Amino acid sequence: MIVNRSLRSICNLCNSVHACVLEAGRAKLLNGRIQDRLSLSISQTNFDEILHGISLYTFQFTLYTNNKVHPTVYFLCLLARRRRRGNILLFGNTGPTSMSDSSPRKTALSTVGHLVRRGIPLLVLGGVLVTAYYYFEHEDGHAPAHDAGPSHPTDPIPVSVFPPKFETIPLGGKFLGQTEASQVIEVRARVPGHIVQRNFQEGQLVQQGAKLFQIDSRPYEVELLQAQASLARAEAILNQAEVSKRRQETLEQRKATSQQALDAAQSDFQVAMAEVQLQKARIEAAKLQLQYTTIESPVTGRIGQVLTDVGNYISAGGGDPLVTIRKVDPIYVRFPITEHEMLKFRRQVSEGDVFAPPTEDLELEITLADGTIYPYHGRINFQDVQIDQNTGTMVVRGSVPNTNGDLMPGQFIHTTVLGPKRLNVIRVPQVAVRQTPTGASVYVINNDQKVETRPVELGDWSDGDTWIIESGLHEGDKVIVDRLMMLRPGMPVVPSQG
């Protein structure tokens, strides 16, 4: 009420000043000699800053409220803006008035100057009052949105609401992991020799039993022939020993030989038999050595870069491998679980908040780096038995089918453990959550059908567009999901199902 009366007083003053200015203008037009008689100089005082402030305020007020400005106020604003560019007079040059000027004209112009000088402080006061009125009328400090709300502030605002309820949802633990080969085989030579042939291309998929390298086999073929010859010689000696043994046995029956000769014949026969067995074993060893000159793939997998190629002499056993083969079907995925996550999961299971099937029934869903879901699910086949003291994590490993070879060792993937479920969970849409310096909150409708602020504790992000609410909401609450920017606590609203 006080502000309204002040505004009316300012308008009346502006009307008076405006009338005097118009009257002075008409007197100036009727008598050209009036110029340079009386001037109102704006001196280098704080009036410059006052008028400039009024100018800025007036244009801002007009911008925010779309109200029309009184002509005299607009005139003073223009004066302030021009005054900032240089010293300017309202009605002529500064100087003493001529003694020949008539008293009525002098009195009229003096009245104009008097009113203007008194009007400037009042206009400043009026600006302060208008600012105060505008501020208390809109406490948020912003201009009213003419089309955003109802025509009357007391009218209930229609809003959409979301009724939270208890749900059972997948626990959805997602972990950053990496793929690795289920087997890594370093291919080495079993016999020494020169490599004379390579039968694969680097990087290709090779089948189990495929021939990879060929070592020069000629020395081993010779060894086999020597072993075979030694066997033939041993067999001939065995036959001679057998004949000698039988002769001595016949003579012994006739008492025509000594026991010593019989024993020697039997001993020679047994030695000959052992020599035959030895030579047979040497033949098998020679055959095996000859077989080892052909190096085959022990598993089906991807073959890596060749480290020793054709023409090189290789030793048996130690040293660098010839090549490495990685078995990629199935492929393993390895991901760490922090100690905190493990303890939290076990606590939730023990308290009945989470249902978890046996470990062997847990499945793994793989999300690739480009966001696509791998079409095959895996299963957990290993959990580490200790916590890594350096990282504070426990390693979990799963086996995933990779028939088409789409996954390669070393890929970074996201692994989601399927099977565990969270019980009695409340979720709300992301748009309903307000993030403030004091924490997260939502707007709910109370029993009086008015807006109420409800602080909440946020949990995990769920399904890409909802928040899990750990505390602060109950089943049956009415959570407002739209028009949040125009709502304030205590405002009446009309709910509708969102």
Automatic annotation (TrEMBL):
State if Coiled coil is listed as a keyword.
yes
Keyword terms of this UniProt record? Coiled coil
Q: Which Pfam families match?
A: Beta-barrel_RND, BSH_RND, HH_MFP_RND, RND-MFP_C
What are the residue boundaries of the Multidrug resistance protein MdtA-like beta-barrel domain, all occurrences included?
Answer: 330-415
Q: Which residues form the Multidrug resistance protein MdtA-like C-terminal permuted SH3 domain?
A: 424-484
Which residues belong to any copy of the Multidrug resistance protein MdtA-like alpha-helical hairpin domain? 224-293
InterPro entries the record matches: MdtA-like_b-barrel (IPR058626), MdtA-like_BSH (IPR058625), MdtA-like_C (IPR058627), MdtA-like_HH (IPR058624), RND_pump_MFP (IPR006143)
| Keyword Membrane attached | no
Cite the Multidrug resistance protein MdtA-like barrel-sandwich hybrid domain residue spans from the record: 184-325
Q: Where in the cell is it found?
A: Cell envelope
Any one GO BP annotation for this protein: response to antibiotic
Major location (coarse): other
- Coiled coil region boundaries: 224-291
Task: Say which family it is in.
Answer: Belongs to the membrane fusion protein (MFP) (TC 8.A.1) family.
Protein name, entry field: Efflux RND transporter periplasmic adaptor subunit
Query: In which organism is this protein found?
Result: Bremerella cremea
